[in-house]
Amino acid sequence: MPKTPAKKQVLVLLGSPRKKGNSAALAAAIAEGAREAGARVEAIFLHGKKIAPCKSCYACQKRNSRRCAIDDDMQPIYAKLKRADAWVLASPVYWFNMSAQMKTLMDRLFALKAYQIDPRGKKAAIAMSFGDSDPFSSGCVNALRCFQDAFAYIGLPIAGMVYGSAGGAGEILANAELMQQARELGQRLLPPAQ
């Protein structure tokens, strides 16, 4: 009897301090689409995690290094990043870029090599919300460009990006077209099971 292939895994990293915020709503729609496509989804709320900024010690870059020198809540996240077939990164725009919670995580991705995480076999999806009228004046474009540049550097393809304007927590849910785009992004995030 042939083995049933393991479900693909999607890791959602939520960079907002609001659990029911707008970027979290977009990420939830991506996750819903991924589940519909047969993936198993796990979400990590970064706010409240003890994740220190990179201290540029380069311990993770040394020959035969197997970890980051900082022992904090990022350690189990590295293991989840390694297991996941796709990463969803969601953040609001704070002061013309991604949130501090998300930027700290992004800086700590410098240690991926030490954990033998090869992002080239994975995909990413980006979800952003902003309070201004467009992605340029809000600074959203700065965050999107940061994700694009960082992920191009490490060889992680971006399957898609969804972003939109919203103020109060959950307000973005009223944008049915954008929520549908997020769900469709989740559905195409991973290749269909063979």
Question: What does the secondary structure layout of this molecule look like, with pairings?
Answer:
Blueprint lengths: L8 E6 L7 H15 L3 E6 L28 H10 L2 E9 L2 E2 L1 H9 L14 E8 L4 H4 L1 H15 L3 E8 L10 H13 L6
Parallel strand pairs: 1-2, 1-3, 3-5, 5-6
Antiparallel strand pairs: 3-4
Helix pairs in contact: 1-6
Provide a short characterization of the protein structure.
The chain has a single domain (14-188), classed as Rossmann fold. Helices cover 34% and strands 20% of the residues. The protein has helices at 22-36, 74-83, 100-108, 135-138, 140-154, 176-188; strands at residues 9-14, 40-45, 86-94, 97-98, 123-130, 158-165.
Q: Assign the CATH superfamily.
A: Flavodoxin domain
Please report the number of helical segments.
Answer: 6
Q: Which CATH first-tier class would you pick?
A: Alpha Beta
* Helix amount: 25-40%
- CATH architecture, by name, is 3-Layer(aba) Sandwich
